[in-house]
Design a protein that fits this description.
Structural class: alpha/beta
CATH topology: Protein-Tyrosine Phosphatase, Chain A
CATH architecture: Alpha-Beta Complex
Number of domains: 1
Number of strands: 5
CATH class: Alpha Beta
Radius of gyration: 14 Å
Shape: globular
Helix content: 25-40%
Length: 172
């Protein structure tokens, strides 16, 4: 079944071994970016050096439109035969925003609320980075629907780190 996986960095090796993804997205601050895991094809590993901040003035390496453009281009080359694995430091914010973006792109317009609510059901800890989602909303021409959908998710379960979570592309 075609699916996205989201994990924290600490579970990356296990997620690769267990799920055999064909594509990997790393969203880490530039100074903590990892090398491509041993044995994984470098051309199928997208590295986005971005800090987990929601105010562009709050620090260095804020999420930008170029990050979303690169994510969308990369994910559109994924054939869905094997999972696409997305990770950030904790598997809560940057990676969940990226999964939300790809799901909104793949599943089409006017499903943003359905996707957000399914994300909350599958990942009570999810707290998608709103700046990444704002850029995705703009890139996909959703007119604020993606940001509005995040408001329907309710409060996240507060945890230090998420767990590996699957999001199917069919039957959310």
């Amino acid at each position: 079944m075609p699916r996205l996986l989201v994990s924290p960095l600490s579970s990356l090796d296990d997620a690769i071994a267990t799920h055999a993804p064909s594509h990997l997205v790393s969203l880490l601050s530039p100074e903590h970016m990892i090398k491509t895991p041993w044995g994984f094809p470098a051309d199928r590993h997208l590295k986005l050096g971005v800090n987990d901040i929601v105010d562009p003035a709050a620090g260095t390496a804020p999420p930008g439109r170029a990050h979303i453009d690169a994510l969308l281009e990369f994910s559109r080359d994924w054939d869905t035969k094997q999972p696409l694995l997305i990770h950030c430091w904790a598997g809560i914010s940057r990676s969940m925003a990226s999964a939300f973006t790809i799901l909104c792109d793949r599943l089409g317009e006017d499903r943003e609320i359905e996707i957000a609510r399914a994300m909350r059901q599958r990942a009570p800890h999810a707290q998608p980075n709103r700046l990444l989602v704002r850029h995705a909303d703009d890139a996909l021409g959703r007119g604020g629907k993606m940001l509005a959908a995040l408001n329907t998710m309710g409060q996240p379960l507060v945890v230090e780190e998420g767990v590996t979570t699957a999001f199917p592309l069919v039957g959310l």
